[in-house]
Protein 1
Amino acid sequence: MKTRPIIHLDVDAFFASIEQRDDASLRGKPVAVGTGVVASCSYEAKRRGVRTAMSLSHARRVCPELRVVPGDYRRYEQAGKSILHICHEKVVRVEVAALDDLYLAPPDSPMLDDAARLAEQLRLNVRERTGLLVSAGVGRGRFIASVATHAAKDRRVEQLRSLDRLPAELPMSPLVVAPQDGEAAFLAPFSSGLLPGAGSARGARLAELGLERLGEVAAAPRHLLAGLFGDMGARWHDLSRGIDHSTLRIDKPPLTISRRSSFDPPTADPPFLRGMLDYLLARAALEARGRGLAAGLARLHLRYGDFSSAEASRRFDPPVDDDAILGEALREALEKLSGRRMPLRLVGVELGRLTASPAQASLFPDPDAERRRRLLQSTDAIRERFGFRAVRPGTTLALDQRLDHDRDGYRLRTPCLTR
């Protein structure tokens, strides 16, 4: 039985497009969002050679007229929620891979043409109601649909590059549908780096083996791939041949919950950095508790002024969701890693090894732990009603003079999306 169609939607130049939408002076200009590195860039910037993950210093050399903005996560989050709401009006089963990255299972019809019409309708609705352009791909399987979207984006970039001058209103990307029973030929020319799990290390290994394209992966012996990469290699062999039985992961909990912010210029101010660490951790722990999750691992990420990085982690057994316990470990890590006496340009907090919080308290609970649990419940309820800053760590007072804020928190520079 054929896998039912899946629609993949990916917002074009998400952060940069929102900045251009909300600030008329940026429209038609090359725009990059980020501090230190490019987190997102407009198509005007891409035409001039700017790329995501490029350092901003390099980007400015490539494109001297580049307009750089730090970004505002809250506006991006609101836009993502609006797009999700539009999708849910037509489709019940939606997987949110990221705010700007959605997979949908069309209702009822198993036909690719019906899925394509629905995808086109959703794209038009998103454009009319949010002002954002969305690329879309349709295929029989999650991976095939994502490659179709990748093809749509590539074709749009090629189309825009062929123009002498970009129009005031950019056109939408073409809708790409992977042909039924022709999936292997469709996939063949694309990079093997698109395979799920083919990160930098595995991607480099594939390249060493001469398997740079999906067609080359498909032609390789299955037993060779399985021997080199285990079960993942065998799955790659199937996917590259168009055998894709992957389904939506609607109820799958996040693997990690992350919060981070960068600083420009870098800072070595201890009270500010401690306050930022406590704020980021409080937001991450609140997200974990809201999802009914506890963390078996807390990791601190730092990036120094010279762009070198460092990290430290601590495991917890049993897992915890209390930012007081998690924070003690991360503050010790910050103190230790700050020994370089170099200013920091990024602080990040990551909660990992997430598991479901206990459904009920122990038969003989520890009185202090039970009081702390009730205090956290009350704190979260107050924040839900009156905003996050209604109850916050005292150390975050050091942030008030340097960061814009409202009842719901601080405006951070290029914070990450939770994954």
Note: The first helix runs from residue 14 to 22.
Protein 2
Amino acid sequence: MATLFTCRNSYLVFNPLLKENFRVSLKSIQSSKLRSVLTILIIAIGITSLVGILTATDSLKALMSENFGKMGANSFSIRSNFSEIQSAARRSRTINRRNISYNQATSFVENYPVSSVITISATAINNATIKAGSEKTNPTIRVVATDENNLGFIGARISRGRNFHPRDVESASFNAIIGSGVASSLFRSGDAIGKVITVGAVRYEVIGVIESQGATFGGGADSQVWIPISNARSSFLNDNSFYSIGIIPLEGTQDEAIDKATQIFRSIRRLSPTDESDFRVTKSDAMMEDVMKIMSYVTIAAFLIGSITLLGAAVGLMNIMLVSVKERTREIGTRKALGANSKTIKQQFLFESIVIGQLGGLSGIVLGVAIGNLTAVIMKTPFVIPWIWIISGILLCLFVSIASGYIPAVRASKLDPIEALRYE
């Protein structure tokens, strides 16, 4: 009981002192508004850049996870190997061209024994301008030559119209499916279904529009046009075109399917057991890992940019606190003469530094989340609240403010009251 009574008395004595120090700190900040606002602004800019970029990055990650999730965890692709690194054996024994040909792709489809959904595709035009009447797109549209299974492989959905039918591919029809971005650019005032677009010098009828997938690397499905691969072979593709094969095996058979696919395609490419594979097999989850790795680099870069800005803010905050100590030397002397001890003086200046740091941090967090999600809206990615980065920003500002204010606070607490009262 005696101990409890002592603790309560100590709390009652300390708590009013804590409030008084906090009040004095706020009054001091108000008395030097310009310097305080500038310091708060520097801290806010650092936190804004940090939280803003990381919010946009988290939003983009969420979209990537969603899009790759639509592809299915079991899917994988066979593509040309673009690696320039070759062994001496490979240089001395080149069997195939670097590209996968159409005949090799169709041969794989005919001979692959594992029950799967298989699609063949190729880039017909990489940076095309699509026209419809007097309207045209930017020259950034990717035209994809493919079959009826490609949309399922990439996880795209038809929002209006229909997908290719096997008859469209067999008859080399002049039908096309367009992304939502292409549709909004060419047909602002009406539905695109049944309308005619021009790809290069060839006219196609729009039979389907893809549901928007938001911002992705390379523009994504929103900035693409699909045409039947049989039609593209007569209009845009040739023997040097690069074809790719997409495979969606039955659930739980991915490893077996990949091993069999590698074996079959090595045979089609006429590779001996000692030859290195001159093609690459890529799992959808491996592609996801590559994208996330790139995003992690963006996160690190954002953190470094924000940290450098906060370092400048820390220097500025320390400077303003040192100036504040010098300007208020007589005030410190007066407070010490009236009974304030060194601990109380140090606490007062630390409070002042922490208040400035947290005001800057909170302002930066609000702006950062707003800017990050505004970017997400523009890119059509999900809205996110980055709680981890919000908490990290608060703790980071607390660390910066304590680190910046500690030296000035110690210097203020060590002032001799007699000398301080004499200070002019």
Note: The chain has 14 helices and twelve strands.
Protein 3
Amino acid sequence: MANITASDVNKLRQLTGVGMMDCKKALVECDGDFDKAIEFLRQKGQKMAAKRADRDANEGCVLAKTNGNIGAVIMISCETDFVATNEGFVAFTKSILDNALANGLKTKDEVMAMTIDGRAVADLITDQIGKIGEKIELAHYDIVEAPAVYSYIHPGNRMASVVGLSNAGFDEVGHNIAMQVVAMRPVALDEASVPQEVKDSELKVAIEKTKEEQVQKAVEAALKKAGINPAHVDSDDHINSNIAKGWITEEDGAKARQIKEQVAAEKAANLNEQMIQNIANGRLNKFYQENTLMNQEYIMESKVSVKDFIARTNKDLKVTGFKRLELGA
């Protein structure tokens, strides 16, 4: 058996980044052969990756960067905040992002297949799993291509964005819009960019909510007319509780239940559908105002939309697109 020295263990540690005890075990198992020990540690990483495949990786590092007319945002996830904030893990994420941008890569699959120092990113991630002992994965990689691109990383590396502008020379605007995207979480660039299924879902929710409110208003008006405080009878449990406390009588409780059931049914059957549609459309417009970038209020100036700010800055300037990533979103 080879004599394994502390210097040998440290050398292997410097080569692989794996802990001292694991490096010593690898050298012992491989009789001091460094190449075999490195392969031993890689296989250990593969086994660790298989064991942790079903674990949740809800923490991680989110970074963004630009290179020429391409901006990219990346998320590499892990299991704990301790690992996510580790300098080595952040540097690992940055290395993948830097190389992906340098190679002009546009998709997550291309990044996974990319080689760094002769090894595929997929294999490097497996190495990290063996080194760190947590599930690690390339969760997202998105790009924006435009004549001018800007990035923003929120402190803590949990949120980041890239934004494209139609014209160069507006660095402050681009930076601020990238911050806007991170802070205000728009779901689309403008109303036209919102997926139809999202529009349909939001309108459906708005219609149902409006109907419920109209029925509730009718019920409350009927209860007040009968001399019953609606707040005392808003649920069966509340009615029973208030009867027990002596705040309402048994008769009032029964009367309230009857009014609620009868009036709710009558109002639901006689709703003004056009009014419901108009109110729901108003709610949908509010959704666009709050959740589409161009219609949001500009974070740097109150009562001014991003669209109006851009137009005021330069009539030919346009936001061409954006990408945003956030841990847990």
Note: The chain has a mean pLDDT of 89.
Protein 4
Amino acid sequence: MELLDLLRGSRALFAAAAGLFGLLIGSFLNVVIHRLPRMLEAEWRAQCAELGQGPAPAAPAPAYNLLTPRSACPKCGAPITALQNVPVLSWLVLRGRCAGCRAPISARYPLVELATGALSAAVAWRFGFGWEGGAALVVTWTLIALTGIDLDTQLLPDSLTLPLLWLGLLAAAYLGRGADTIPVDLRSAVLGAAFGYLSLWLVYHGFRLCTGKEGMGYGDFKLYAALGAWLGWQMLLPVILFAAASGAVIGISAIVLRRRGRDVPIPFGPYLAIAGWLVMVGGRVLVAPWWALAR
């Protein structure tokens, strides 16, 4: 209880603790970002085989999930020990290379860990110790995982978006106190989830009718609905405007710099995640004019 009292009484201490814990969570999020798409692909292949639409597996596949097998070097297969898996520090000590075969290790791993630690500290400082801070940390970690997966595969897995949506609604039902808190009140959350999903669903089908192309995926609808459940319907417009503006700037810059062709699809999930996090942490001050109208 003394530790909890210290964290509750000192915002700086809670932010420091959340930052350190965030480094550990970031290490786990690296596993989620890498393995979850592969787990989904294996599940889809198994379902296709059951329906007779794909080759049947020759033998039962070994267990592969977020915990099994142990992390190993993809080049030589050497298992990564606990000392080699210390967030950020191990990568620096090993100079970004495998301890066994000296194959390079992507800098993305320590960057995800650092980002998770920094964002966790920012959330803890903003909301303090309590239900609001805990809820904001869960949202932050889930958005980081979704961002990494969408950048790699252009997928926003239901196994992350739907729990985020339902947690937002449950938190609103049992913990929500008003439209200007995290979690928001139940009415704002339900309307946020419904309007969030339906708005992008309508945009998707309108764009497809006009152009014959699909402008986004259903995962974007679910992520936007989840953000609506946590932030309330009042924050849907600022989130989509921030996401669209940042996506347009980065997309146009990539085309101008010739790093991406005009026909190459750009995942929208990361921009939704960034915009949602900024609105959550920036609070109503960030969108004060709109908040005054929405109320």
Note: The mean pLDDT is 86.
